[in-house]
Amino acid sequence: MKHAIAMVFVSLTAFVLMASAQLPTTWTNPYYFYSNINTPPIVAPQKISADETEINSKTFTNYDDHSIQNTLSSHVVLLTACLRDLKTTKSDLAETHTTVKFVKKELKNTKDDLTNTRQRLDETHATVEGLKNELKGNSQLLATVMATFETLKNEMKNSAASSIGRMPKSCDDLHKIGHRKSGFFTVMGNKTVDNVYCDFTKPTTDAGFQKMIGYFDVKTSPIHFYAQRRTSYGAVNTAIPLEILKLNLGNAMSTSGIFVAPKSGKYSFALSGISEGNALARIQLQVKTATADWTNVGTAFAEVTLYQTFSLQSTLELVKGNQIRLLLLEGVLFDNDLL
Q1: Domains, the chain, ranges and CATH?
Q2: Do 208 and 224 touch, CB atoms closer than 8 A?
């Protein structure tokens, strides 16, 4: 397009100059420059005969100034259109240039973003590699921990709690049930609770394996019970059974009405009740030892009156295994759930 416009403009300029130069002379062909454009640049000069010159002179002599003006006007219109197109093209080129400049800027920003992204990807890759190495190290550490755990598990299994079937009486007994750290321990003596020092670094046959420190003044565990009936009872010459055990600390009493001393010591007993009917009621507290059968300790009486109360208290020195009971000798005992 540019070449065509330039050629038209140059041709028009040449034509105007030629027209101006030829105004005073005879009119020649105004389109001669087109033939010059289309004619190859290197052509051997040809001689024009006198007849051809005369013909050309006669052909163009008839053109007047009005024809020249019309021709120039048409070329000016063409030139104006070309200039308008040129202006539009220039505007388009300017817009295209702006667009290209913007695209270049965007491409540069995109390139920078790609560069930053690649750097971040490289950093992420390095981080991932570091984590992989760390996980690999942790795996090895975990394997070591698991191996240690299994070793400890086996050791604990080998040193699991055990029993010798009784309370330990010496450092040797403590060693048998799994004690390995030396220190002070409590063991059962013959009649006392002893405090000993055990040195488990020495053989059990060594004189320093066990050292007596002293003994403890240990109080015995308490023995308490509270029992009663819920119905009347009248089977004479039999032990009175107790149907309710509201308290039985030490588990020495049973519902059969027989108390068995769990250990040697002093025991205190107290009983009370109500007789039924108009007859005398007698209840006897008896004890049974290893050397003597049931013997009387004390007797409680209820007078010959309806619903009379009776009671009895006694303190006894008992040996482990001695038994105590209540024996109904006469009458009927009254009781129910309301009492």
Answers
A1: 2-96 (no CATH), 171-216 (no CATH), 224-334 (2.60.120.40)
A2: no
Q: What is the pLDDT of residue 87?
A: 86
Strand intervals (E) in the chain: 183-188, 193-198, 210-216, 224-228, 238-239, 244-249, 259-260, 265-275, 281-288, 295-302, 309-318, 323-330, 333-334
| pLDDT tops 70 at residue 89 | yes
Give how far Cα 125 sits from Cα of 84, 120, 131, Å: 60, 8, 10
Q: 61 with 25: CB under 8 angstroms?
A: no
pLDDT digits (tens, 9 = 90+) for 168-213: 999 999 988 888 899 999 998 887 889 999 999 999 899 999 999 9
Coil, helix or strand for 183? strand
Tell me how far apart the alpha carbons of residues 188 and 210 are, in angstroms, rounded to a whole number: 14
- Its pTM stands at 0.40
Asked which of 17-26, 84-93, 206-215 is least confident by mean pLDDT, the reply is: 17-26
By the 8 A CB rule, do 229 and 244 touch?
yes
d(CA 166, CA 324) in angstroms, rounded, equals: 29
Bridge partners, 240 (sequence order): none
Rounded to whole angstroms, the Cα distance separating 330 from 231 reads 17
Asked which of 48-52, 195-199, 327-331 is least confident by mean pLDDT, the reply is 48-52
Locate 5 and state its tokens: 């416009």
Sign of the Cα pseudo-torsion (132, 135, 139, 140, in order): positive
* Cα–Cα distance measured from residue 302 to residue 274, given in angstroms and rounded to the nearest whole number: 8
For residue 253, what are the CA distances in angstroms to 264, 269, 311, 326? 15, 12, 19, 12
